[in-house]
Design goal:
CATH superfamily of the largest domain: RlpA-like domain
Distance between the termini: 42 Å
Number of domains: 2
Strand order of the largest sheet: 3-7-4-6-5-8
Number of strands: 12
CATH class of the largest domain: Mainly Beta
Strand content: 25-35%
Structural class: alpha+beta
CATH topology of the largest domain: Barwin-like endoglucanases
Shape: elongated
Order of helices and strands: HEEEEEEEHEHEHEEHE
Largest sheet: 6 strands, mixed, barrel
Length: 275
């Protein structure tokens, strides 16, 4: 594999580790006995790492620019996870990767950054500390540690549809550190089942003030063989917005296929909606 990184050589070598986590096979611990899952980390301001922060690097022929700040970052997409294959290796900012800690890899957020990750399918939410680079696979936005993936209930499937929001401390209006982390109590079985069933996920491919434009977008989907498209009239705005959506989407496999189909017709910015 040819790898060209526009960074000092030492940092380039560190980036390769997490690049591989999303390319080659990985897995959970070999034993059924694992340590207790850790609490979420307490977000706090930290100095920007001297390692893994670019400002520009290239992996697998694609160039990435590290964000100057995490302020305002929020994104929805697919999360993956990496485990025992990289347990004990160095992360991009030269910390030791521990699959039982609440950490993550991201392609462009400053290292370190604390983020909230919410599983859109079951509404579970965690906080992780981003200290690594990756995942370098199309249509993936974050690579979680094994422990983090366990807490979001996405280890079995390997991936999940998530929302990632940066916890930022820049400026006087930045987030404040959490004083105490209290784990959420598990919901009763019936309540949990009803909650997970209630979360349907759609892909939004446009919001229009003019119905004719919304109808044209819907016709483009239909002509391209993309089914389950519809127009959702959002009356919470004035004037109302006509949002073109597709779905519901059952899992990451369907989402990946749909994203590829949309890219083929020039729609590059689909947005996940959880209801």
């Amino acid at each position: 594999m040819q790898l060209r990184v526009l960074l000092p050589a030492a940092s380039a070598l560190l980036l390769v580790a997490c690049a591989g986590s999303s390319i080659r096979g990985d897995g959970p611990p070999g034993s059924n006995r694992i340590p207790d899952l850790p609490p979420d980390p307490v977000p706090r301001p930290e100095a920007r790492s001297k390692y893994g922060n670019g400002p520009v690097y290239e992996v697998l022929g694609k160039r990435y620019t590290v964000m100057p700040t995490s302020a305002g970052y929020r994104e929805r997409g697919v999360a993956s996870w990496y485990g025992k294959k990289f347990h004990g290796n160095l992360t991009s900012n030269r910390e030791v990767y521990d699959m039982y800690e609440m950490t993550a890899a991201h392609k462009t957020l400053p290292l370190p950054t604390y983020v909230r990750v919410r599983n859109l399918q079951n509404d579970r939410s965690i906080v992780v500390r981003v200290n690594d680079r990756g995942p370098f696979v199309h249509n993936r936005i974050i690579d979680l540690s094994y422990a983090a993936a366990m807490k979001l209930d996405m280890v079995r499937d390997g991936t999940g549809l998530v929302e990632v929001t940066a916890i930022n401390f820049d400026g006087p209006t930045g987030d404040r550190p959490t004083r105490r982390v209290t784990p959420a109590q598990p919901a009763p079985p019936r309540e949990a089942a009803a909650r997970e069933q209630a979360h349907r996920i759609f892909v939004q491919v446009g919001a229009f003030g003019d119905r004719a434009n919304a109808e044209r977008r819907l016709a483009l989907l239909s002509a391209s063989g993309i089914a389950n498209g519809f127009i959702h009239e959002d009356r919470s705005t004035d004037p109302a917005l006509l949002r073109v959506r597709i779905g519901p989407v059952a899992n990451v496999i369907q989402y990946d296929i749909l994203v590829e189909e949309l890219e083929n017709i020039g729609i590059m910015d689909p947005y996940l909606i959880a209801e």
